[in-house]
Amino acid sequence: MCTSISYIAENQHIFLGRTMDFGPELKGRPVVTPRNYEWTSQLGEHFHFDYGFIGIGRKLGDYLVADGVNEKGLAMAELYFAGEAEYAQPMSGKAGQLAPHEFIMWVLGKMASIADVRASIDQISLVDAPSALLKVTSPLHFILSDLSGATVVIETKDQSLQIIDDPIKVMANSPDFNWHLTNLRNYLPLNPHSAPNREINGYKLNAFGPGSGTFGLPGGYTSPERFVRASYLLSNIEAADTTEKNVVNLFRILDNVTIPRGVKIKDDGSVDYTQYRSLVDLTTQTLYFQPYDSLQLYEAHLTEDLLNKSEVTELPVGDGLGATELN
């Protein structure tokens, strides 16, 4: 279970951020896949990656990432889509078949923009192929943003990939994206101001204080609640004019959909929590990363040195709280 947000800042920097909410330990860390990388899919097909990219991933045979941005400023994240995703069965000898968790590698490695994805998506089919880590096929859908300012969601319907414009620039988990858009109509009265005072039979009722316009804003951790909460916050947060302030703003939004360990337990007894938060600046191809067990924010850049390496680079992340001692 995850939440993702996209944002165009006043200084024209574009961001895509997400929480990675999951039960099994993913142990994701910042990794850089270089340009001209030769990658082999789970089903044995070879792909040449024209573009390098930075994201959060892990070595599972080859490296895989769950979110990131490439050198052309195309950013993408995969989110769980339980009960909704529909995949075809693998067909021997057919080109362009990918396991769902591999799709992001193909997009970031070969596409320069959402327009490219639209033009090329028919080349790919997502098939029922279990991941090496989870031993099951991951039900996923995807959010993408690029330097044009566009944001889209990609979901499967009738086993084919569908691209849906995302004007809200938010995504969560099941149900499908169009259901979430419809559900927002239930929250039209939400606003950052105080509710007006009223009289009932001559009795004066005054708001308790600032913020009463947010009464009814859902506070739970279900996907619909997180989608509404992120949408409200993203549409009302105070604009900032520097990259640093925008990074802070967007992590404050992610704070509100971050799931602490232990407060959300699945039916099988496993704990679903936010294992990390990440944010990418599409304009500068910069990655910001914060693992659950640290208050430290890590920053990494997609440099030419990393792009021109022959192998994937895993960037080290320190252990511990990350607090600065003052005395």
Automatic annotation (TrEMBL):
Give the highest taxon in the source lineage: Bacteria
A Pfam family hit: CBAH
Enumerate the UniProt keywords alphabetically.
Hydrolase
Which residue numbers delimit the Choloylglycine hydrolase/NAAA C-terminal domain?
Answer: 2-312
MF terms from GO for this chain are: hydrolase activity
Annotated SUPFAM superfamilies: N-terminal nucleophile aminohydrolases (Ntn hydrolases) (SSF56235)
By its UniProt entry, which PANTHER family does this protein fall under? CHOLOYLGLYCINE HYDROLASE, HYDROLASE
* Entry's family note: Belongs to the peptidase C59 family.
Q: What is this protein called?
A: Choloylglycine hydrolase family protein
